[in-house]
Design a protein that fits this description.
Length: 106
C-alpha cells in the first residue's frame, strides 16, 4: 500500500508539472534543454514536452495500481515491468522533442 501511495503522489506531481509546462511555464524545464530553442517555438516545445510528462505520470499511476491486486511476486514483477517500459517510452518521447526543437539533448 505504501508503494501505491508513493507512486500516486509522484504521478500527481508529474501531472501537475506537465499541465503547467503545457500552459506555457517552460521555465520549469532546465535552461540547458531550451538553450537553442527560439522564443517563438517555446509554446510548441512546452506542449510537446508535456506529453512526455503525462506519459511518465501514467507510468507511475499504473505501476501503483498493479500491486493493489495482490502482493505476489507476479504483481511485483508486472509493476516493475510497467515502470521499465514506461520509462523507455517516456524517454523516447522526451528525446524526440529535444531533438526536434533543440537539435540534441544539451
Amino acid at each position: 500500500m505504501i508503494y501505491a501511495i508513493i507512486m500516486f503522489a509522484t504521478a500527481l506531481l508529474l501531472l501537475v508539472l506537465g499541465f503547467a509546462i503545457y500552459r506555457g511555464h517552460t521555465g520549469l524545464i532546465h535552461d540547458y534543454h531550451q538553450e537553442h530553442i527560439p522564443q517563438n517555438d517555446l509554446p510548441a516545445y512546452g506542449r510537446e514536452f508535456s506529453v512526455g510528462m503525462f506519459s511518465m505520470s501514467g507510468t507511475f499511476a499504473l505501476s501503483g495500481i498493479i500491486p493493489m491486486f495482490g502482493e505476489s511476486g507476479g504483481a511485483v514483477w508486472a509493476s516493475l515491468g510497467v515502470l521499465a517500459v514506461g520509462f523507455i517510452v517516456s524517454f523516447v518521447i522526451l528525446a524526440r522533442v529535444q531533438k526536434k526543437f533543440n537539435g540534441g539533448f544539451f
